[in-house]
């Protein structure tokens, strides 16, 4: 018997469909839909972020991403703009009508962050930060739960269970690559996890090919693979100028390349019978 | 600088296209084509094999697979029919006109095996059996080189280099999953390897979702992901009666499910602009 | 150039020696000493804990362990007694004169926990909980920093760097096993990390064979290996009745087996020229 | 139930003790003994090899190692002297009276190799080369079976089972490190495997810290850890001039450092009650 309950397919009739309302309409995440989340790794400044947000909104992106609190391996790296970044995200949403998602790192920041954004994200390194899971579980915001980079699918679903057991059923799983011995790429996307999770759970699952691969050239083929494998969406890093990015420039797409990918995704979504 | 030379993209103008002639025409493996290889894990008997070979040939499969020498983790498991299996493969080819591929395990068997089949396969466990690589490198048959289940892409390309340096340029790389900590699936398909290999090398790359996942339900989504990620083909285990199979029944598709997958593959190949 | 600075060997003259004062004297952790930390996985009740604390103190254990806040994979597992557990730890210390260590999981609990114990522990799952690292870095308590179960040594030292950069130089690294494909044991102890860390850093390093192996029969040989490999100490789970333990009973030693191990450790410490 | 039979502890009364006779006496490998195998990675030339063989013999080494057929990741690396190397090994044995061990890579070479040496070695990359396992299983020479760098313990014991089922009960298991995500070291020694294998099997187990770590500075601490963990011996790479070595110089000990390690090993063997 599987140790997770609320997250288990058996506990829910059909698939969970998560709806996020905004002035532009309702974004739906789950079976039957193909959701595209895009934006730069970090919110680096007001002008730049509002600029790219407008462009991405015009392209039809469903959800805007941008980090205000960044988990960095080194204490000496840029760690995000904090509350200032949150304010920029809120402004971007107001201007574009597109809902926004950002990562929260600390239990003490959950209340602050949820006041500014539509969707909370728990990052890979915090997938087993059980206090944080419970805290986002006490909010009424959907939560994108990234898979720990060395977490089994069972542990991942148990992390979702923590959020759900705390009262929040709106969990979106995000496969973002696992750590292996391979050195040519940053992480290894577990593409099989998409269908395995669909078998085990009723929760939506999306894929983040940008963090998973760490190489922009691989983002397009892996994003396409994700849709073909049955994922409910993708999360893509896009930057006006990847080589100027304060973090993760190597894996960010230019706007031109993102436009090409978006066309690919639309074609595949059609083949798969998914609304986009 | 990369340590492989003949396998490196720089050493070859354009992509390598491998052609296999048979009475039915020429099978092409490489960029621009989508090749489907199918058949049971092992050749278990003459009647059964000829039967499924005919059906698969009628469905349009490009290459028939079937193990005559099986590498088994336990010395007490069914290890294949040996030369009798090779004869059945040759007969299937004669009847259907579809070329056949089989694995060779021992340097001493290379001459025997190449007398019966069109394509040689080196399995995951033998990817660094350097004597075997050199021996198949001395034949004039195309070689499907499966990635070692814990091999880096660099080691994999160096294994291809062994075959090429021995005189055989016709190597087809096959991603078949790597070993990770995950227990719900047998192995983890490294979908990103498809595009990374395309960047590094001019050799064709295909994906084996059957061995990679170990679960038949995952074969369809992962095979589709492979095509969307840019793979030049897929290798699929199909069995008339998966639950009766002497090996790997859990991962084999029924003929009905394979037919469904084949339709999916055709649609995706069209989207990708690949001939099938 | 290595990305860590304060943790790097070059930044410190000789090895860091951490001293913890108590009514019994001063416990020293670092090169030249062999420190034994022992106790049950979790503080399960006042009577039981005080009982085992007295016995372990009499045996000469240098530091008592016991979890008050337990990070559990499932939200439905016993998660510790919380502040009540902290009070029991403080009482055990008062009675025995042996300093105590416990894990802290949430930034909001750091102040509370440090009021009761002598040494703070950051667990494997929180090794990259950067907020927590900074928070324990602002205390004046030594911190046992467990290696993330899939963390590279570089990431581990960067996690130590977070604590040190926040103002706390007293970090004790603890190898507790990494996740691999092996299923017979829970994790795989990276015994080579002991000497590699000694080469890279001036910080003390200890080994936790109990969590690393998950099997009590392996605790003795792996603990001995740790001392022979140059570790500055070991952390051992001991329980009066392993089969009654609320968590991790399978890996806990009985008091009898712990006594045997302690004799082994003393002999090896002597061979290694370490004070115990 | 475990899938291996002949290798299983239950199938044998007590531990297997393997005896190798030579003009100097009988070398014993198994419980109660601490066997030291040493020599350069490859036999690079007659003079050099005989020279180091004499020195190692004088130091009391029980078995001399040296590769004549070397499995190299690249086809362009030095692959050993072949039969010439075997002749040098045989001469070294004749002069020193110390038995010799070398790796065999190809089923076709087994007969040749066994004519020259006392112990055959199957390397990590060939642990699941089942034809080779069967072929060495048909000889009457003891076989050192290295663990595949990504093999589970169960697969390792099943590989031993192949040799035993073919008629050769004299298998010596050798842990040589597994592949993980860590990049500071070449492989990660699974020190816990020593005791786990002792629990599962009656076969002797030794450790090769040279290949496992890839760094000579780590060889001493890891070799010591192996003895403390209960290993029946160690296999150490020693070279007169590590920086001139044609292969694996970075992990080879100088004769001076090997002498220091040998003293350590003797002390630990004494503590462990093992004959050396």
TrEMBL record, chains A, B, C, D:
This is Phospho-2-dehydro-3-deoxyheptonate aldolase. GO terms for molecular function: 3-deoxy-7-phosphoheptulonate synthase activity; aldehyde-lyase activity. One of its GO terms (biological process) is aromatic amino acid family biosynthetic process. Gene3D superfamilies: Aldolase class I. The lineage of its organism: Bacteria, Bacillati, Bacillota, Clostridia, Eubacteriales. Residues 22-267 form the DAHP synthetase I/KDSA domain. Keywords: Transferase. InterPro entries: Aldolase_TIM, Class-I_DAHP_synthase, DAHP1/KDSA, DAHP_syn_2. It comes from the Bacteria. Its EC number is 2.5.1.54. It is an enzyme of class 2 (transferase). It comes from Syntrophothermus lipocalidus (strain DSM 12680 / TGB-C1). Transmembrane segments: none annotated.
């Amino acid at each position: 018997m599987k140790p997770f309950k609320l997250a288990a397919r058996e506990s829910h009739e059909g698939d969970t469909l998560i709806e996020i309302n905004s002035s532009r309409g309702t974004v739906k995440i789950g079976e039957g839909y193909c959701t595209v989340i895009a934006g730069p790794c970090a919110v680096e400044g007001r002008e730049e972020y509002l600029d790219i947000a407008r462009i991405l909104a015009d392209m039809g992106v469903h959800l805007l991403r941008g980090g205000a609190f960044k988990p960095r391996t080194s204490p000496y790296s840029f760690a995000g703009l904090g509350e200032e970044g949150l304010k920029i995200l809120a402004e971007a949403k107001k201007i574009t009508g597109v809902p926004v998602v950002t990562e929260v790192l600390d239990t003490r920041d959950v209340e602050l962050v949820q006041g500014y954004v539509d969707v909370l994200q728990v990052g890979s390194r915090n997938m087993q930060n059980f206090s944080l899971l419970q805290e986002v579980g006490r909010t009424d915001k959907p939560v994108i739960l990234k898979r720990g980079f060395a977490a089994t699918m069972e542990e991942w679903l148990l992390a979702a269970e923590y959020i759900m057991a705390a009262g929040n059923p709106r969990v979106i799983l995000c496969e973002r690559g696992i750590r292996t011995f391979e050195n040519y790429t940053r992480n290894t996307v577990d593409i099989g996890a998409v269908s395995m999770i669909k078998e085990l759970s009723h929760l939506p699952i999306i894929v983040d090919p940008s963090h998973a691969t760490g190489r922009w050239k691989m983002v397009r083929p892996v994003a396409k693979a994700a849709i073909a494998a049955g994922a409910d969406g993708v999360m893509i890093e896009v930057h006006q100028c990847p080589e100027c990015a304060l973090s993760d420039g190597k894996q960010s797409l230019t706007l031109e390349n993102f436009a090409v990918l978006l066309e690919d995704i639309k074609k595949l979504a059609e083949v798969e019978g998914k609304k986009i």
